[in-house]
Amino acid sequence: DAGVTQSPTHLIKTRGQQVTLRCSPKSGHDTVSWYQQALGQGPQFIFQYYEEEERQRGNFPDRFSGHQFPNYSSELNVNALLLGDSALYLCASSNGQGYSPLHFGNGTRLTVT
Amino acid sequence: DQQVKQNSPSLSVQEGRISILNCDYTNSMFDYFLWYKKYPAEGPTFLISISSIKDKNEDGRFTVFLNKSAKHLSLHIVPSQPGDSAVYFCAASVDSGYALNFGKGTSLLVTP
To answer: Which of A100, B31, B61, B106 fits a disulfide with B52 by CB distance 3.0 to 4.6 angstroms?
Structure first.
């Protein structure tokens, strides 16, 4: 049973560029959330997608946007990259049922130079 | 504004002894609490959870205690094993299906 898969695993971009990260949820899961984890910090919630719509959003600027596809996979897009966007980006999925824990992928390490 | 706080960045415990990891929170609306374990180069792995209607939940060697009046929860690992060495994150949410608020983590080292 495949868990949450993310691609790419590592990425290096230049300040001002745009980036797209991809996520496939665990089989049977329909809800996808994205988190940013800076060095030495806990993961910070970016947004959550359910039924192809953004259901909840954290305190991140509009440069961060996302999408969920009919097969429940998801993309995270970041425009006008800043040095401070360098972090581990984690995707997590759940089955949308109450008290269902999130299952995380291994993340995409983004470095902005 | 850090709503979930893990005030001990690191903890070292001998194999076979009890590990106690602590977590405090400030938002009284939190009703679902979880612990995750994270190894280097991997995503967080779910360990155990507890809802606000309970004060204790056990799963094998792992027990989570919730003290709502003190806004405090703890994770007990008994007995501790070297393979338990990892970073442990406490997380909480308002309404179980939504955003998780994480602490900064506690790095546990279990020595043989």
So the answer is: B31
Of A42, A45, A103, the CB nearest to B46: A103
Mean model confidence pLDDT for chain B: 95
CA distances from A66 to A54, A76, B61, B67 (A): 8, 4, 39, 37
Q: What are phi and psi of A84, to 5 degrees?
A: -70, -10
Q: Choosing among A59, A95, A99, which should be mutated to test the B contact, i.e. which has the most B CBs within 10 A?
A: A99
Please give the Cα distance from A87 to B15 (Å, whole number): 33
Count of A–B CB contacts within 8 Å? 59
- Per-residue pLDDT at B91 exceeds 90: yes
